[in-house]
Amino acid sequence: MDAPPRPALPSPAPSLPPPGPPPGHDTGDVLQQIMAITDQSLEEAQARKHALNCHRMKPALFSVLCEIKEKTVLNIRGVQEEGLPDAQLMRLDNMLLAEGVSRPEKRARGGPAVAAGTATPGGCPNDNSLEHSDYRAKLSQIRQIYHSELEKYEQACREFTTHVTNLLQEQSRTRPVLPEEMERMVGVIHSKFRAIQMQLKQSTCEAVMTLRSRFLDARRKRRNFSKHATEVLNEYFYSHLSNPYPSEEAKQELARKGGITVSQVSNWFGNKRIRYKKNMGKFQEEATIYTANTEGNTTEAGGPRSQASCPSTPGSGSSGHFPLTSAGDALISLQTLASLQPAPGRGGVWSQVSVRA
DNA sequence: GCTCATGATTGACG
DNA sequence: CGTCAATCATGAGC
């Protein structure tokens, strides 16, 4: 600042005439001088910059540069305004929100009320929660990575923006930099970082989808029950053949014993009733096995009524359409029908079938 | 690879 | 809401 004015340095560059010299120098010369500045030492450059700023041609050059700038700014603006239609970004945002990734889970920005209701609109099926803990752990891992990356990008964007802004401000002392130009530059930076963020969001979405298909949709994958579970279910089924509709409690007990869920028990009984009714012949053997079993050890808490205890004499009386293994069962079924309450809800169907025997 | 068995899903019904 | 009936999708045996 207060350095003694020493305008005339050794000036090693012969092509560089002293600041004040004769006219006739065109803008090309001045530009060359500007270019030459970069080759000089800092101190030297400062001096030259100062000299240039004092050059009498400088205002003219500056205005020319401004003019050119104006044109290019206009040109660029036309191209720039397009921007990216944020439709895709919005889609990604929505999806991340729906999957619960966008919520940082530690600090509820919008307030706790949000988290309560909007569990997952298109998202997690909330039943069988067997592997959900695992799923949630993985999901929260993804969420963490997502947020830390997002934070990193935002930080980098901020830093880069201030850096560029400072640079432009510095440069504005030697060349025309319009405020709107700086704004535009900031806009460009932001849009670049937005593109990166979009990629991050995209890959996060992909990760979530993969996770979902691996875990939640895996429930669609059929796994045969263990032999033990099947035995438990069959024992109950055949020992309650006249009324194979386990109560909620019984279902829970069966689920516990078989190591499966209550809804799986319900599914199993639903399937079993239908399939048994459709093709009883096929189940005769199974029926005798389990009825024999349950005769031996009556483990069922519900109190097996031994209604199906008769040895099977296939095809004797039953015209084959009913869930009875023998004519004897018909009697027993009728007896039990008399003593049993009709099955919950619409047990009538099954009872009707029995009675028809 | 085909076939059958079987758990899960879906839509209708009461 | 529980059940039935049809159907889908996969596992298992051959």
UniProtKB/TrEMBL annotation:
Its main location: nucleus. Residues 22-217 form the PBC domain. Pfam families: Homeobox_KN, PBC. It is found in: Nucleus. The keyword Transcription regulation applies. Keywords: DNA-binding, Homeobox, Nucleus, Transcription, Transcription regulation. Residues 295-314 have a biased composition (Polar residues). GO terms for cellular component: nucleus; XY body. Residues 218-280 bind DNA. InterPro entries: HD (IPR001356), Homeodomain-like_sf (IPR009057), KN_HD (IPR008422), PBX_PBC_dom (IPR005542), TALE_homeobox (IPR050224). The keyword Phosphoprotein does not apply. GO terms for molecular function: DNA-binding transcription factor activity; sequence-specific DNA binding. Residues 1-24 have a biased composition (Pro residues). This is PBX homeobox 4. The gene is PBX4.
